[in-house]
Structures are given as structure tokens and as C-alpha cells.
Amino acid sequence: MAHGPLNTASSPVWADLVAAALVGTERRAPALPPADGALGDLLGRLAPGEDQAGALLGVAAAVALYRRAGWLPPLSAAQPFPPCQPDDLPPCSARAGAHLSQMLAGTHAAALPEWLAALSAVGRAVPASLLPALLDHGWAKASLQPLIAPALGARGRWLAGLNPDWDYASGAGAAAAQEDVTLLWETGSPAARLTLLAELRASEPDRARDLLVASWASEKVDDREGFLAALAQGLCMADEPFLEQALNDRSERVRKASADLLATLTESALSGRMVARASQYLRWDADAKPQIEVTLPEEYDKAMQRDGIVRKPARSGMGEKAWWLSQMIEQIPPDAWCKLWDASPSEILKAKMPKEWRDLLLSSWSEAARRHGDQEWLEALIALRRADKKLGELADLLPYLPPARREALTLELLQAYQPLAGDHPALAVLRSLAGPWGHDLSIATLDALRRRFHADDKALRTDWHLRAAMLEFAERMPADLAGQAGAMISDEMRELPYWGGTITQFEELLHFRDEMLRALRES
Amino acid sequence: MPPSLTTDHVLSLAPDAASAKSGKSLSSPRSWLSLGQHDQALWGECQGSGREPYRTQIDLSEPAFRCSCPSRKFPCKHSIGLMLLLAGQPAAVPEAAPPGWVEEWLATRAKSAAAREQRRQAAEDDPAAAEGRRAASQAKAAAAREAKVSAGAQELGVWLRDQLREGLAAAPGRAPAAFERMAARMVDAQAPGLARLLRAMAGTPASGDGWQGRLLEQLARMHLLVEGYARVKGTAEGDVLTAEEQADIRSAIGFTQSQEDLLRGAGRRDRWRILGRRVEDEDRLRVQRTWLWGESCAAPALVLDFSAAGQPLDRSLIPGGSLDADLAFFPGAAPLRALVQRRHGGIETLTALPSFAIAAALGSYAAALARSPWLERYPLCLGPIRLAQTGDGWLVCDESGRGLPLAPQFGRAWELVARSGGHPFSLCGEWDGDRLTPISAWVDGFIDLGGSV
């Protein structure tokens, strides 16, 4: 051990004694080591007579103490870490820090993303003492990394650069801090470079793309795919030449990623090609009773491959040709069909379709409406699913509407059916509806929950679906409803068999979020 | 209690990590049905799983705790939670007159304190009579024990020579059984100190590279102890040992010193900085080592506390504080272990840690070791230092460029790097001759590193 305090090899006298002790005095009489000064005098008085083993022990005791008392650590080649830059953000209050420490220890960890976002919003940094635990947490949980990076401050970034496990965060803030972006881009780890690219993309989109273009040829496949994803933010037509170039990539995943980006640019050449391609297979028959005719592509050609259409079906139970067609429809902005056929979304959806292809068309259009965020199509699809009584599909459509509209629709759905049980159509929608929710929807949900617990029907005890949903709700409702939620829940409810724990957790998480956000605002 | 109660102080009172965690979850006003405080006491009612709410009360002057919950931990999570609440949000606990149940308890406490004082006074007034009764019966038992220990030590001396005669190369084949057997023999011989050293030695042959040297050093040191004891008993010839050296040998063998005698003797008054503490489990015993540093004597002291499993340890010496007190030192050539004899005032908040270069701190250790070869641990107060990471673990580096290795079990090195931002700071730790286990640091304030929480 290089830094082992007492090194046997470095001291010949001691090494001789150890060697003699290993062999044993009955095999070989030990030779006493020569020594000068006071140690020599002492050892001289321990000369072996009959008692060789005793003498060896005595000498070993004296020499061992002599060495230990005189030992100084060697001059070390290891360099202490260089000091960090002055802090750029003030740390949050001790109380806010205590909340973070609790979450990092596993209590109410669900609120951590919200805490991190709120911290960045008030322009505070994580207290230095908690940085290592937070960086470790982000190492294990990649989804938190984008939230951790802006909460670090200069000290956190400095620290992240010292430990290879944490380098995902070391690129954070470099762009804003005007540090040497090019150097970090050329020498950083993949994780640090990805963070850097994403940050730079937010502030200087063209510079970010140019950085990537310059090094593109030498990037690894996995990295190329990740870097492309970072371009999604602030995507514009200036990116098209590069992305069009990336369609020639050898990797199918890279081609697909690039095509997906181009498809969101309605002006792009790829969008044009895709519309031209798909319109060969869907024909609009504008009769008094309009109908859509469907044919399937016969051949998988090079052009399709280049435009990111994957050959082998990813979904089971779907034929190859149907799979190709569905990918084309998903890439095209659904609005393109309205222009092409001069019809509104609901007219298109009400048209007569071949029975065997109806599901494929509806699911592909749903995906296209989600990708392109087409409100009109989403609304038309929702109306159709409601008319068809296919309420299970709503959870895949509703959450993509703007917050006010989606919450109003959810509220309508919530109040149209009773009670709020596992099979309630609003439950699946609520579970996929991202937070933070508005007050109206939250209060209506609380009320529906209260009525369900009050009724205490037979199915309640085994309603695992609702139970799992409760804790998600506690993450998404506005935290300032904590008091109101507590007032709506009676002691009987807290003692419901099988349910008491969940209800208490629900209350506690809401209260915790309330306190934690208050503490951050006060700091 | 220190004038300002901090969260860290409260957490250092928690008997274990689980209590600290549960305490934190009870540290919000909504966990409490009622709350109140006045200058001496703090109280609250907490709805637990029982029908009646638990009544938690704390006498802040010591602090002392009482709670009606059935937990065997002490202090319980309710007491921890209540104090955390006071530390974190003092305004949430209203000033009030104590309710009946608090009043009652405080009165009982005052009464028993008075009774204790009376007994102490009585013993002081007539020490001779009590002493005489005790001495007669004790002398007989002591003589019997000395005989047993002598026989055991003699046997151990022969056993040690046998190890060296046969050669240590055979040790890995015989350990740990041979060491455990000898340790059991030493327990029978009423020499628990020797038994403990033997047990610690049992793992050495399997401790990796360089075990041969470590084992020889341990055996040789034990030999020195056995030989020393023979001189104490006059059964072997050689140098005459001083009373302090004899005391070191007796205490290493496992004789205990009467604490009452010690407390009656003269103490050393100083302002003692409480550097930090470590708690370790030895067999079924929990051992707490609290390290102090005397401001005017510029020397360390060690206060030991023991508790059987689950029992509370004395937590009244709060790391990061300082205390004007008389300390009674156990006799020894390099006196280190001490008892708090008399306090002059409460614990005040520390303003700095003592700090020395590595060479100077190791110089004090060497001086103590030279006088007392069986010294197992010694506090080092280092600074200004910085941390460096190597393939073999962490190093504490001072300005001379020397690097002292940290114990690999120490898990908060990154936290120190983060808090210091790479700038020099002060660090106190326990040095076992090989590695440093940090107990506290000073980075813009005191950091307790030794607690179990």
C-alpha cells in the first residue's frame, strides 16, 4: 500500500525481525539487529540467553515502538483539489436544506423534482454539505440530471468535475459562465458534453449545432443519437441541412432520430417527401358520403430507409406493410391531410374507412396529432372516441391539450360518472395528466375521493388502481391545498382498513410539499 | 444546554439513526396536538398509534427527557422531534405556563436532585466510616483477583514465546481459534484487557498484505505488557517502574480504577473544547469516546462512556461546545483518560478548533507513545489542511506536502471537499497509529463528523 503508514520493506532492521519471527526461533536462532544510540543500548540489554523467543519479542517491541514513534508520513505526490471559483448563487435556507436532506434520505422523494425546479426559480443553490449526496442521487437517477444541473451553482459544478461519477453535471452552466465551451466539448465525458450541448442549445442554438456539426463524423453511434435528441429544443429550418445529411447515417437509430426531427419541421424536404409518399396510399373520395380508400406500400425501398422508416415491425400483430404505412402517417402533420383533401379533421374522421384499416388510421393519426401538437385534430379524435364509447383511449389524447382545456375536459369526465373507482374513465386520464394541476380539477378530485371513501363500498379494499393513483395525485395537486385536503379527510377515513396508510401518505406528501415550497420562497 | 439550540445538537442526542429520522418526521407543528415551553421546560402532546396522545416533556437545563410512549429508546423519537421543532421553528412553540403533568414531573425532579445532594453531603461529612466498611470486604476480593491475573499473565507469557518459537508462518492456519481460546483463558483469569487485545489480534493473520509485521508488533507489545506486569508484581527483575507506569500497565490488563476515589482527588481546571466523539460497539458493550482539548494546558483528554445494548449513553458533552470544568485524570505516564469532576457553568459554543501541522501533531503522539507504549488512540488536531484523493483512498495533506491516510470507513470526505470548496480547513480525528478517523472539522463553523447520525 503506497500510503500504508509503516512499510515493512522500507526498514531493513524490522524486516529482519519479521523474517526471524516467521521462521521461528526453534528452527533458526535470531540474529539481533545492529543499532546505534539509545536504541542500541536498549537492544544490547536484551541479548538472548536461553530465552531466544522472549528476547526476539522484547527486541521487536522496542524496535516497533521506536519506528512508530519516529514515523512521519512521506511527502505525497497526490495533489489536493484546486480551490473552486467563488459561489455565484447564495445557498438556500437551512430549513430548505433540511427538506432536501430528508428527500435524499428517501422520505417524500417524489417531491424532489419539484423542489429542484423551485430552487432554480428562486435563484438559490443547494447547500455545499448536501452536494455530494445530491450528485450521487443524480448518478443513480438519470431523469433528475437536467434538474440537478441548474441547481448546483459554481461550487457544485466544480465538485462534479472532481468525481467521474458526477461528470454529467460538470458541463452544467459552463455555457452561461462563458467558460471555454470548445475545450469542454472536445475533452469532456459523453455525459458532460450532452449537458453542455443542451444548455448551449437553449441560449445559442446555432452555435450548439455548429459545435455538433464540426465533430459529428468522429462521434460514436450512441452519442450521435443522444446529441440529436438535444437539438429538439429550438429546432428550426436552419438545422435542416445538417439533419438531412444525418439521414445518410449508417445507424438506423440515428436515421430515425433525424427523420423524427425533420418531420416536425413542416417546411422540411422530408415532410414534403413523406406527404407525397403517403398520399399514394390514402385516397379521398369526396362523395356526398366521403370515404377513404387504403392501399398498402408493396416495396420497402432505399428512399424509405433513408427517411427513417423502420423495416421490421416494432409492434407485434402488425404486418410489415401496414407498419410502414403507419410510420408514414405518424410523421406527417395531420393538418396536411386537411389541406390535401380540403376537409376538416372531424369530416375526415367521420368518413367511411375500410373496416380492417380503421384502427390503424385512428391510432396513427392520434400519434401524429400528439407529435405535432395539433389541437384541432386532438379535439376531433377525443370527440370521436367519446362518441364511440372508447373512453380508455382518452388517456392517450387528453394530456396533450393545453392545461386549461385538458383540465376542463377531465373535470367534465370526472363528474359524468360515479363513483371514482379503478375503472372510472377519468382515473386513467388523471394518472397520465402531468402536474401541476389547477385548483378546480384538484378540488373536484379531492371531492370524488372523499365520496368514495365515505361510501366505503366492497370493492374499495382491493382497488389497487385507485390506491396507486392517490400518491401520484399528491405529487400533482397544488401544495397550498394541503390544509383543505386535510380538512376533507375524516378520522374514519384515516382508519379505513387497508387504506389508512395510503391516505396518511397522501396527506403527508401534500403537507410536505406545502412546507417545502414555503421554505424556498422564504429563503 | 448551549444558549442556542441547533438542529445538529439535537440530532447528536439521538440514540441511533432511526430515531433521528423518525424525530425529523415529527419536527413539524402539525404532528403535535398541543405545544408549550417556558424557561426551563418544553412539552407537547403527540397523537401516536395509541388511544391517548403521548405526553412528551423535556427539562432543558440538562437536558432530561420523559415521554409516555412505550419506546425503549432514549430519548425517544417524540423527544427528538419536539426539540428539533424548537430548534427549527422556535416561534411555533408558544410560551405558556406548564400544565399539571409537566409541573408534577419538574417537581419530582427537583426533589430527587435535592435528595442526591443530601446523600453526597452525608458521605462527605463522614467518609471514614463508609470507607472502613467497604475496604475490608474489598481487600479480600482484590487479593484473590491479583493471584488469578498473575497466573494468567504468566501463562500468556509462555504462550507468546511458543508462537515465536514455532514461527508466525503457522499463524494463519491456527487463527482465529488459537487466539480466541487464549482470550477465553484471559477472561477466566479476570484480565479483560488482555482478552480484548487477543481478540483484536485474532483477525490479523487474515488482514491482507503485511499481516506478518502487524502480528509481530501486536505480539511484541503484549509481551511488553506481560513483562511489565511481572515487574509490577515483583516476580521479575529489572527497572523499577514509576507509579504512573504501573497504572498504565494495570489499566491495559483490565484493572479498573475506582471513579469515586478519582473524583475525590484534585482535578485540572481548564476551558475544555469538545472536539468530537466516536461511538463503537465492542462485544455487547457500546463505547463512546469523547475527545477534549484544554485551552491553557494545550493537551488532550478523553472521556469514556460505556453502555449495555440499548441503554442511553451520556450525551451531555456536546461536540462543538466548550466547557469550563475540573477534569480528574486517571493516573498514567501520559494521562489522557479523565472524568468530568465539576462543571463551572454551562456549555458554550466553540469559536475555533486547535490546529497543528501534521509533523507537530504526530510529535505529541510520539511523546505520549514513548511514555505509554500501550496507547491505542490519540487525537490529532490538524490544520490548515486539504484533502487529496489517491488510488488507495483519501489523504489529509498539510502545507508541508505530507499526507496522512484517512480510515477507509470514513464516508464523508466528499462532503468536506464540497464544504471547503478546496480551500484549507481544520480537521480533528482519532489516530490509531495507522489511519485517521475524523471526528470533527471547522469550515465556516463546527462540523460534527463522529456521530452515528
Brief account:
The complex is a heterodimer of chains A (523) and B (453). Chain A has 523 residues and is mostly helical. Chain A has 28 helices and two strands.
- What percentage of the residues of chain A does DSSP assign to strands (E)? under 5%
Spatial arrangement of strands, main beta sheet of chain A: 1-2
Distance between the termini of chain A: 48 Å
Order of helices and strands of chain B: HHEEEEHHHHHHHHHEEEEEEHEEEHEEE
Oligomer: heterodimer
Helix content of chain A: 55-70%
**Proportion of beta-strand residues of chain B:** 15-25%
Mean of pLDDT of chain B: 89
CATH architecture of the largest domain in chain A: Alpha Horseshoe
Whole-number radius of gyration of chain B?
25 Å
Listing every helix as H and every strand as E from the N terminus to the C terminus, the arrangement of chain A reads HHHHHHHHHHHHHHHEEHHHHHHHHHHHHH
Q: Which runs of chain A of at least 5 residues are low in confidence (pLDDT < 50)? A: none
pLDDT < 50 runs, ≥5 residues of chain B: none
How widely separated are the two ends of chain B? 20 Å
